[in-house]
Amino acid sequence: MMSAIDRLAISGLVLLLMAICLLNLNGVGVMLLGINQLFSPLLLLSAFALAIIGFQQNVTLSRALLFYLMSLVAYLVIGGIAVLFTDNTLTSSVPGLLFRYSTGLLITLAGYYAVSCCYSVKIEPLKWLLIFAFVASFFIPFGHVLNVSGQIVVDNQRGAGLFGNPNEAGIIAAIGLAVTLVYVRQKSTALLLSTFFIVMAILTFSKAVLFMVFVIFMLNQLFKGRLSTSFVRLLILFLTVSLLLVIFRADIIALFDGTQAQRIEQFLNILAFVPETESVKSSRGDLWLLGLNEIANSPVIGNGLGALHSMQGATAAVNGGHAQGVHNSYLLKFGDAGIVAFVLFLAFVCYVFYQSFALAKKDLHARFSFFYFFIFSLDCMVTHNVELLRFHNFLLGLSLGFLCMAQRKQRLGLV
């Protein structure tokens, strides 16, 4: 029988880990105080403690989690070996990357074990996930205000929040919307929260995040199996507003200057089905082409761990002379560690998609897992360091834990 002190300690560990990851407290420490990795000791200690507790409770590792472990180990091992055969002068520090990926894996395991720990101490993880997502999203318009130290480059024209990065902040808003649609049962509260998270996502001016939000909203209605009156009203409102934005597109763009005008134009072009012009074309495509060139150099074992984290040639093509990564996690796997690592990672993504989709209509936790894996897979298309982001590490483990729990309930005939 678990004592009250044990329950309090486990609850504290789970909430501490969730807060550090979802509120990006290390990033906040840099922006406010200029101190890097301020909360890392607490982060790693809480993750390690939860992993130990999960191990002591004999929590079974699911097939999906083992699949992920296999894909990650293959990437690190093959990429590490490939370093011995590469002359890439921009290859990042292998020991440093190994440490970062290892700590990310520890946090993923802690997130996975957190599901079991939460229900052993009778706390609902989705409730706290919603709370932290709300707090993080609330600060999205104030990213430039928080950046007191100036050590993080924050775009004043896009909402970057606690992350200092609009795309990452927008993903947290998309996560908040997913939890709201899955967890909140009271219609008025769900409507208010959904509106809040959608508005915060829009303020990041991230096209990928806006696409995530739209698809999640539509998929949730599909899983419900019916079109509610509130959904029809929201859809009519969305179509009406979109039509007005398209009609007055030129006038709206003229109200803004510089980068913000570009982001507004890109957003309105999506609604109007207008192809991007060269003036607003993203440099991400240039990075992908550079990544494909690296892949062509060594498609079997890759160019070595870290080669596509900062690419040769990226300094000349984009980003004003600063080395950049490939901005695509699938290409990263292929370019760093070859075709085997790429296929294993892609197979893992497809596997969890299929498994979570199969249960999403019957089990709410599996539905959240499906929404998260959609966000994860899409973010992998536009970001090369997804597995090095702490909130992704934790949410990946949490979602795999939810999926395992839903599968166990299915075997017991409870769903």
From TrEMBL:
InterPro entries the record matches: WaaL-like
Keyword Transmembrane: yes
Transmembrane segments: 37-55, 67-86, 98-121, 128-146, 166-184, 191-219, 231-256, 334-354
Keyword list, A-Z: Membrane, Transmembrane, Transmembrane helix
Stated name of the protein: O-antigen ligase family protein
